[in-house]
UniProtKB/TrEMBL annotation:
InterPro entries: F-box-like_dom_sf, F-box_dom. It holds the Pfam family F-box. SUPFAM superfamilies: F-box domain. This is F-box domain-containing protein. It comes from the Eukaryota. It comes from Glonium stellatum.
């Protein structure tokens, strides 16, 4: 396997926008917060994400650290989600520091494109012969 990437620091997952640290956990130094996030079990990240929108961004920084797009239906759905997220940010009338402007893309560390033949055959619109 590729190994585990360390989660991004809080300021990075928030695209360097100002953040409100009402949550006491998020008042810890960002280095300590990153260590805690690494220790959180993968299955607990979804619960952690429910605590606040900042916690959600931090959880995403672990969940989305490595993305592999392999033309599978799951990958295609993920692309749609990223595209919708991008459109929402671009068309948003929210100020730049609004929590609604924090994106999924800020959480991705590596993106691998893998053309898996079994999945490629699912999509007629791609002509890979030409």
């Amino acid at each position: 396997m590729l190994g585990t990437l360390k989660p991004l620091m809080l300021d990075r997952v928030c695209n360097n926008r100002p953040i409100d640290l009402a949550c006491r956990l998020l008042q810890l130094p960002v280095e300590l917060l990153a260590i805690i996030l690494v220790k959180l079990p993968q299955e607990s990240l979804s619960n952690f994400a429910l605590a606040s929108w900042l916690c959600r961004q931090l959880a995403r920084s672990r969940q989305l650290s490595r993305i592999v797009l392999d033309c599978s239906p799951r990958s295609r759905n993920l692309c749609k989600i990223f595209f919708q997220d991008m459109q929402a940010v671009v068309s948003s009338n929210e100020p730049a520091n609004s929590y609604q402007r924090y994106t999924l893309g800020a959480c991705v560390r590596t993106l691998t494109i893998a053309a898996v033949p079994e999945y490629l055959s699912l999509y007629e619109e791609f002509d890979f012969q030409s």
